[in-house]
Design brief:
The protein is α+β, with helices and mostly antiparallel strands. The chain contains 3 helices and 7 strands, in the order βαββααββββ.
Length: about 150
């Protein structure tokens, strides 16, 4: 197994089409052959969703936590296979199973997003994603996504 050293936002933006305010991965700490990855999302009070999502008790929406897992999974698969990332592919979410939200995510939390490949076939992959904050699981889900060629504009 080949371990990739950490990489930051420049490499992430070269792999994903997402941009502020919808880019939900700040850094990759470790990545192993497209089968396992640990990424980071720093949650700050400046996030635009906190304005309207329980303004007196700001909580990161669960759907955005799932999106962070999906983005991390896309980075994991695309980064591991250079022909996909340079060949112009995007990852599209197909399904979410067994999602559990165990604790609220609050401003100031640092999310560690761990993704593990369960299975892969031609243009689809299934991954297990777990988000922890301070060593405690806050969110977990199993996601399916597909690789789709980018449309040239």
């Amino acid at each position: 197994m080949e371990m990739t050293t950490s990489f930051g936002i420049d490499k992430i933006q070269s792999l994903l089409p997402h941009r502020y305010p919808f880019l939900l991965v700040d850094k990759v700490l470790e990545s192993t052959d497209g089968t396992h990855q640990i990424a980071v999302k720093n949650v700050t009070m400046n996030e635009p969703f906190f304005q309207g999502h329980f303004p007196n008790y700001p909580v990161m929406p669960g759907v955005l936590q799932i999106e962070a897992i999906a983005q991390a999974a896309g980075i994991m698969v695309l980064q591991a296979n250079e022909s996909l990332s340079t060949g112009g592919y995007n990852t599209f979410l197909m399904s979410v199973d067994s999602a559990k939200f165990r604790k609220p995510v609050l401003p100031g939390d640092q999310l560690l997003i761990e993704t593990t490949l369960i299975s892969e076939r031609r243009s689809a992959a299934k991954i297990k994603g777990v988000i922890t904050v301070d060593g405690k699981v806050v969110t977990e889900a199993t996601l399916m996504f597909m690789l789709v060629p980018k449309q040239n504009a």
